[in-house]
Amino acid sequence: MARLTEIDNFHDTPKKVFNCVYNICFRLTGNHVKAGELVKATFIDGGYPIDPIALITVLCASFISWSRADPGTGWYLPGLSLHQQALLQLAPLERLVVVLHDVAGFDYDEIARVTGFVRSDVAKLLASGRLALRDKLIPSRSAGESKPGGLINAG
């Protein structure tokens, strides 16, 4: 996936920009309908930001606002990969930072800029999110019963 900050001519590549934003939104929500709503909030409700950093800042603000209003960890859809299922089980802010860093390729300073978090909080959220993903994706003998497909039963 192309990083928004690496797109040479932002105005000449609307499809590439849309695909980047949609991919981030889908990774955050796990649901095409919710991803579409988040894309709408990013582009339309955000006033069509033309700067890539402004665009992701609006996306992050929308997602943070949504996660406060609906603290659910995600919406399950049949056919999601194990990685996406595990990602949706993360706390919303951990999920946001993991997606921005590990999926979209943003560095710590860029994430801090677009989310409004301090850099040390970005590092903590990324570390805790990755640890939680590891625990969900790599079953250990002491972690409990393994769910089908390798996810750990949290209950």
UniProtKB/TrEMBL annotation:
Domain of life per record: Bacteria
RNA polymerase sigma factor 70 region 4 type domain span: 84-133
Gene3D superfamilies: Winged helix-like DNA-binding domain superfamily/Winged helix DNA-binding domain
Biological process terms in GO annotation: DNA-templated transcription initiation
Cited InterPro entries: RNA_pol_sigma70_r4_t2 (IPR013249), RNA_pol_sigma_r3/r4-like (IPR013324), WH-like_DNA-bd_sf (IPR036388)
Molecular-function GO terms, alphabetical: DNA binding; sigma factor activity
Protein name per Swiss-Prot or TrEMBL: Sigma-70, region 4
Organism: Desulfotruncus arcticus DSM 17038
